[in-house]
Amino acid sequence: MQAKVCILTTVHPPFDTRIFHKQAKTLVKAGYDVTLIVQHDKNEVVNGVKISALPKPRNRFTRIFGLTWRAFRLALRQHADVYHFHDPDLLPVGIFLKLFTNAKVIYDVHEDYPKMIRVKYWIPKPLRPLAALLFARIEVRGAHALDAIVTVNEVIGGRFGRNKVVLIKNYPLLALSEAILRPKAAKVSNSLEGTKLIYVGGLTRARGIKEIVEAMEILDEPSNVRLDLIGKFTEPLFKEEVCKLSGFRKTRLVGWVPHPEVWEHLQEADIALMCLHPVGDYTYGLPVKLFEYMAAGLPIIASDFPLWENFFKDHGCGLTVNPLNAKEIAQAIEYLLDHPEVRQKMSENGCRAVVEKYNWESEGEKVLELYEELLRK
What we know:
The chain is α/β, with parallel strands linked by helices. It has two domains: 4-171 and 359-376, Glycogen Phosphorylase B (Rossmann fold), CATH 3.40.50.2000; 175-356, 3-Layer(aba) Sandwich (Rossmann fold). 44% of the residues lie in helices and 17% in strands. It has an eight-stranded mixed sheet, with helices on both faces. The chain has a six-stranded parallel sheet with strand order 11-10-9-12-13-14, with helices on both faces. Helix 8 (209-218) crosses helix 13 (326-338) and helix 11 (288-295) packs across helix 14. The longest helix is centred in the first third of the chain and has 19 residues, at 60-78.
């Protein structure tokens, strides 16, 4: 008889890369009966994953206090052997599932949420330190009532101690990226026509979007260079501020696109940007975006965090800059534009590292091992 798995998220989109394309599809392929409870417009089965649709909430309050408990009721009906939830909002749900069922319950921690609370624009600034402290205590104590805690890096895992923690890194899927998993042919230095820079991810102040757009204005003329922003602004006032920058005339706001389409945009790009500010948990994690850029064969300009600097020195796939300094970002862009042979080498190095080490196909085995161990118990 197939073991039944129920995955829950009230925050992430239905076809989130880590949740749907990596974990859920890996479990289906291994023979598990998988249901995903998620915001969606209908109940359906996609790639063997049964999607149980939640309605779109009107606001953050109704998501946290209404949608959360609706997800709990749907989860109870699944009578699953394993429940695997992905949002801190669902921590009470995970605890109740542990209390009222005989199932195993897994908490998947994507970020250092207490540190991220300190930069949430919608929480009044004076309340952020207290909110972060309270949540940190609640999260650690609540998580230890569950059967396993999955984290994406060692620092986050350290918050929970060694007991019950499993490290499953968020590396890219070779199956999705194989169509472009090859070095980029760098354009020659005297042909800057149509050079395309790209950023993929959330369009927030902390992710350095303002400085990236400011760098576009600093670039030497008559460079015909365009920046594509692939993602969504979450703060209307910040979007208005960025759109008024003079560098925005060299910028195209593509908006959010489904993950498979992201690869199409990466294939058309020449240089990738990842200039996150030194806040939250950014400084001690290697985001999946980094490895996706590498898989796409893109030389990368990234923040000069010590962890990232060491990574780039080891793999030779990009440059690091002060993410708060638009001039330094512009200088790095101009250097790569003027040195196609350097870009070519970086492209080759990044592709090789992903193929040999940084891919989901190796991490997916850890998911299956975790499930097998929990079900044996």
